[in-house]
Amino acid sequence: MRRIIVINPNSTQAVTQEIDRAVEPLRLLEGPAIECVTLKDGPPGIESQLDADKVILPLSNYIRSRESDGNAFVIACFGDPGLHSARQVTAKPVFGIGECAMATALTRADRFGIISILQDAIGRHRRTVRAAGLESRFAGDLAIDVGIQGLGDEAMVLERMIGVGNRLRKDFDAGVLIMGCAGMARHREPLEKATGLPVIEPTHAAVTMALGAILIPQ
Amino acid sequence: MRRIIVINPNSTQAVTQEIDRAVEPLRLLEGPAIECVTLKDGPPGIESQLDADKVILPLSNYIRSRESDGNAFVIACFGDPGLHSARQVTAKPVFGIGECAMATALTRADRFGIISILQDAIGRHRRTVRAAGLESRFAGDLAIDVGIQGLGDEAMVLERMIGVGNRLRKDFDAGVLIMGCAGMARHREPLEKATGLPVIEPTHAAVTMALGAILIPQ
Amino acid sequence: MRRIIVINPNSTQAVTQEIDRAVEPLRLLEGPAIECVTLKDGPPGIESQLDADKVILPLSNYIRSRESDGNAFVIACFGDPGLHSARQVTAKPVFGIGECAMATALTRADRFGIISILQDAIGRHRRTVRAAGLESRFAGDLAIDVGIQGLGDEAMVLERMIGVGNRLRKDFDAGVLIMGCAGMARHREPLEKATGLPVIEPTHAAVTMALGAILIPQ
Amino acid sequence: MRRIIVINPNSTQAVTQEIDRAVEPLRLLEGPAIECVTLKDGPPGIESQLDADKVILPLSNYIRSRESDGNAFVIACFGDPGLHSARQVTAKPVFGIGECAMATALTRADRFGIISILQDAIGRHRRTVRAAGLESRFAGDLAIDVGIQGLGDEAMVLERMIGVGNRLRKDFDAGVLIMGCAGMARHREPLEKATGLPVIEPTHAAVTMALGAILIPQ
Amino acid sequence: MRRIIVINPNSTQAVTQEIDRAVEPLRLLEGPAIECVTLKDGPPGIESQLDADKVILPLSNYIRSRESDGNAFVIACFGDPGLHSARQVTAKPVFGIGECAMATALTRADRFGIISILQDAIGRHRRTVRAAGLESRFAGDLAIDVGIQGLGDEAMVLERMIGVGNRLRKDFDAGVLIMGCAGMARHREPLEKATGLPVIEPTHAAVTMALGAILIPQ
Amino acid sequence: MRRIIVINPNSTQAVTQEIDRAVEPLRLLEGPAIECVTLKDGPPGIESQLDADKVILPLSNYIRSRESDGNAFVIACFGDPGLHSARQVTAKPVFGIGECAMATALTRADRFGIISILQDAIGRHRRTVRAAGLESRFAGDLAIDVGIQGLGDEAMVLERMIGVGNRLRKDFDAGVLIMGCAGMARHREPLEKATGLPVIEPTHAAVTMALGAILIPQ
Asked: How many Å apart are CA B105 and CA B99, to the nearest integer?
């Protein structure tokens, strides 16, 4: 049976569960298995470049150890840590959720806005957008400024996401929104309804790409 | 049952059949139906900007007439004719195969090369790449220069595609190839093997995106 | 006698008259005739991508039918509908007023601002600017938000244009203004005086280009 | 009577005569006078950045001295020396032939190629293209490598221009050619015929722009 | 003994003294001499494009006259007047302080903001940034709007610089600040402390580059 | 005494010695000490993205351990591994030699070419150039294709560098060359002489920047 392995590079099991929820609709009879795993060696959350860089080796090692099991791999952290290293340790396709979210957004509207959790992420995201050569489709990036401990307050998180999403639509002319973080799937639909814009959940976008890479005409 | 409607805007039934073949692997139990239709009012082939512009109205009319049947629409011509008009006549997502092929290619390598059928298409493709804001990921576009009547000679077509694909890899530093035309699915796998690069079949890429838009976490 | 044929692709005769007024100063003894015509098959106004796409075939047919009469053609709608198709049906030069207005603006100041009629046009214009590769000279695009029926209230239209023009100058650092619509010639001079910036009337810009293409050193 | 003053910033009278020939077709009854003058203080030819910079002050002084006579000024050297300074000393519009040639080329084809006289000019032209923000419409720049003394051999000059023009078309995919030097008007038409591409003579392009700026709807 | 010659192209001796102060920390035992000179033929201040263009010839002449004395030259005006001409009259490296300040800023943060003295300079700086191909690293440019006579009021100047610097950090997301004018060295450190961002003094940046060009491994 | 700490992230002592040679001319009486160290935990050479990612943690740890000793840090590997993480663990400025080499090259000519050791590095370098926003100043990147064991054959290495450097000058129009690898200082001067272009040794460029950051006006 074909298998897509989705790796949450932080060690927080609750995030992996939310990732699992994001990809559940893509599990179809006859389709590939979609396995969501937690990287045990990861930090509780990836909140800085150093956090991101720290998971590269464990991630690459994990992917190497699963090479024969997986038909495609997904790195489920928006900063795509270790994406290019991972592609070096396996011949199977490896997808980064940040890259896939942006690519998917291009097919839904002229310009995408990113909703970040923390202000600090915005600089990293801008480098990512520029490295991807997608600056001219990038409307802007705004943070909800909620720390990890605050993410449990779902009503508040959603409210801030809606606020930020509406600002991206009105003041930055975004036509599609990207959730700039894994593990936020439950907020996708209400955010779409409240802003009137399509909302891309990044792990879902990447697993969709992985499906396409596996279910390919021979 | 959910349904993706793929419209071949030229009237050549054989092309629709080849499109059908491209998307066959994406038909899964429990997944959306994927219906490939031929636009009766289209020209036999779309070989110029005027051909492309001519199909916009019939395409929009067709999509409007199927609005209640389809959960997503795909315009299966690489030039994405009428994409923005189509998005105006339906609230359902509409995907262009050119746009989706380029977006998908971004997730597989640093720079994409396009294999065109006719030399004349290259100028149109370049405008499309620029309008998409993807110039810095674009390696180049080369034509196999085979007219519609010549496309039946499959061995020759594949041989030229391989020649052009290898030039895009070696001389233009392309890391992924896009087939710049619908209806070429049968050549995808041999082309991939002969060039050593991933090859994107554009209708397949667009239907994958459509699946993602439909099989979405609520 | 040489002749420039200017086609108003909407069927509103009053717009054609205003276009005629725009180009009147370019009618010179010994110079080419400048004929302004209304496309009978066009919609009353072009307010959407679908409206724009609908006129492409009638426009191309009209140009083909006048091939032997005209030394140059001008498509007098800011979105340049059918420009590339039109260039395919005639060997004579064809000019789009949007393209010519932007090109002309480049010669007057560092960055141009566009004054649109409707908010909806802004997204289309942004795609046009990007497809033209002119993003780094583009200051911004603001709408006066007046529907077709409101355009008769000239004082109000001018007042809003001045308001928007001044915002483009002060907040967006535009050094030249483009009227993002045909048929506004009467407001050009007062707008220039009120904002202190050169104002480009797009049909006038295109007919100037057409003059240059005809009155050429042999 | 309205007047466009075209200034040849080099002191070679023969170049001014050839400039005069370029703009002759734009002299129309009822149209503005077009006066071509030689800047006495200029060097015999402008072949380097230092040559270009040397003429800025005399040019500005000359324009200031003619302020009340001229309705528009044209600086007839492809490098547009002193364009921004000139705009500071007069409220009348000032056009640079390099800028106007590129702007005009945008309205004729997707990408322009430049034919330079000397290899050394190419670096300066590239800075100019980049400063103009027109890199994505720029196909390439090739030199005919003929020194000032060689320019008298017209047959050889034309032959090299055709050779370079054809290379720009075939190898660089240029759709329109720009003569990257004033004083070459006599070669325009044969070059157009031999290459099959429209050819922009830069002073002619700038005087056309100046006509548009003067013959303006009030 | 090796020597870097820093030329203040305006004739104001006080500015040269402040430039001298900027480079004093780079004078090291065994290191090159750093000589700061005033261009006698320059205007009291360079406040416009015409002022800038006026100094090109005297600057080039001065550099030529010192060719045998200097191992490197620095043009100490932020607009880098005559940089390309100067490079033509000497084989020694010539540095412009604007260019060097931007290059240095790239190594300190993702995006640089420029603090200008006068509003009028902003347009010139934007052309410079675009010509340098550095638009995507450019956060913004704001002026303190103090005329030459006001620059003596140091407390006010510093206060405005801090205000503008903080706006560039907060509203424009600048990560490093560039002083867009020579002769402001005394404000560098307090500005850095007040804004929390690294501040580049442009003449210091250029002399550092010149040191690197001289103290080179053989 | 002030101190710049230059870290060779590979464990090959001979490379550190060559780095030391590169920076020797920047050691001046009264200037900062320049200490070149070998990262013990690094691989023998950094030849892939995975190699580069592997050194990030040891590098960050090392920098943290030397925080109080160093006034500035230099990461002496052309790919700038861990640069953003390193900036997070210390408040002292951290310089990457790739970034500094490109920034320095901007001040010497219009476009820079990169000489790489291995073909594989070119893709990584292209991502780096794009992430730096410097595409429009980038002429090209060519490899000498010599493995680590071959680098000992100095005559052959220099000969290939000269060959590649001359191709970058002639065919890619590079005006300055960057050595795309640390530890090549001995070839800098002969390469400069043989190609006629300035050649940037990257560690030297970064230490120059570090000097500027330390020897700063207060």
From this structure: 10
